[in-house]
Amino acid sequence: MATGFPAARLRRRGLRGALVAVLALGVLTGCSSEYDAAEAEYAGDYSSHPPLAVVGYPSTGTLGITQQVVWRIADGRAAELADLGDPGKDRGTTEKTAENWIAAFRKGAGGKVTAEFYDEGSYRQTVVLYLHGTGQIKEIYVLPATVDGKGVFRVSMAEPDPAEATAVGPWVPKKPGELGSTMIR
Predict the structure, then answer these.
(1) Do residues 85 and 97 lie in contact, with contact meaning Cβ atoms separated by under 8 Å?
(2) Against a cut of 0.85, is the pTM above it?
(3) What is the distance between the alpha carbons of residues 14 and 6, in angstroms, rounded to a whole number?
């Protein structure tokens, strides 16, 4: 029976060593991947909204800004939506456009949405949003901009008239993918 005690002590030491190793690994990995505020907000938004279906070829930047536009419309956050607008445009026009988009598209943006990205997305890209629950279609333009010295993508928001905000271009197909994500005007 005396031989059982040393074995038990060795097992406890082994278990204690394994726990220390797991704890150390957790602390090291937890400290090494810090999120900044924008990344944390994006992660929260991503997990609390329906997934965006995608057709075409977005870049990481054009996809990210398009997701944020849909989320801000769905949540009714006009100021935050206006912040996604082209910084070179009149702020009053951008704010009025944000209000129009929310008034017109909020219900549909809260459900299933397909975003079709036209042509190549490394520079300026036309994106058509299909709001399946309401049957609405919204065309937006994503473009590069400089904000706080950083290259980012923003959205052209120059539709202060509600009728203009809800108008659909004659070239826009009724269903995603009908033009093969290539603009024909």
Answers:
(1) yes
(2) no
(3) 12
